[in-house]
Amino acid sequence: MIEIKDLHKSFGEQEVLKGINLKVEKGEVVVILGPSGSGKTTLLRSLNFLERADKGEITIGNVQVNCKHVTQKKILEIRRNTAMVFQLYNLFKNKTALENIMEGLIVARKMAKEEALKISHYYLEKVGLKERADAYPSQLSGGQQQRVGIARALALNPEVILFDEPTSALDPELVGEVLSVMRKVAKEGRTMIVVTHEISFARDIASRVVFMDGGVIVEQGRPEEVLLRPKEERTKKFLKRILPAADYSI
Question: What is the pLDDT of residues 82-92, one digit of tens each?
Fold first, then answer.
């Protein structure tokens, strides 16, 4: 279970997160929607301390931290409970697809090379890239690179996988292959928090949709509630901009 209490984050004078409270149960797929600058990515990055929140509490699994007084040891514990799939893949350019997956297992998890190799092959096959094990990122399409990123996250077997707009850097024809893998991961009961603009994914796969704007959670609920019958005016205005008229009613 993940719980966020009163999370605040500022960059200089700009307050980006203004007291976020959110609970995510084990096995839930929570999709976070919102306009650019609403704080979605900062929230995600704060969960595994890629950004350090100014104050608030974060609980992931059995690890609870106070962001204002957290130790490096606690940060490492939180990071071991999370895995991130990045917008721009963040693969090591000088390592093959297989080696990119193995790296975290050997370096962060101190796993024996033989075991890391076996696990990495398994997850590479799981995302449909068994034949591309020896390919370098420059030899892979954007969709394939992102699938390696997902395999890398799965291999770590974290409490939660954080997806930061995983399809936004892809050409439209490559989006489907990544969303297909994400759907399979969700159906396996993995806990996922996904920042995305892919409304079809939110509608079909999410347990819950969270709408953020201006550094706060404006509204949350089941996909059919938030996407089709939003209560808040800010949510309605956002959805009117991004949803076809046929998909939207208030």
Answer: 999 999 999 99
* Distance (Å, whole) CA 17 – CA 220: 17
Q: Nearest to residue 195, comparing CAs of 227, 166, 224, 173?
A: 166
How far apart CA 140 and CA 74 sit, in angstroms, is 36
Q: Are strands 29-33 and 192-195 parallel, antiparallel or unpaired?
A: parallel
Smallest CA-to-CA distance from 8 within 48, 50, 80, 57 is with 57
**What region does 221 belong to: left with phi over 0, alpha with psi -120 to 50, or beta?**
left
User: Is the model's pTM score more than 0.70?
Assistant: yes
Residue 181's region, left for phi above 0, alpha for psi from -120 to 50, else beta, is alpha
Instruction: Give the distance from CA 149 to its chain's centroid.
Output: 11
Distances (CA, A) of 178 to 83, 150, 173: 17, 9, 10
DSSP state of 37: T
Q: Average the pLDDT over 215-239 and give the result.
A: 96
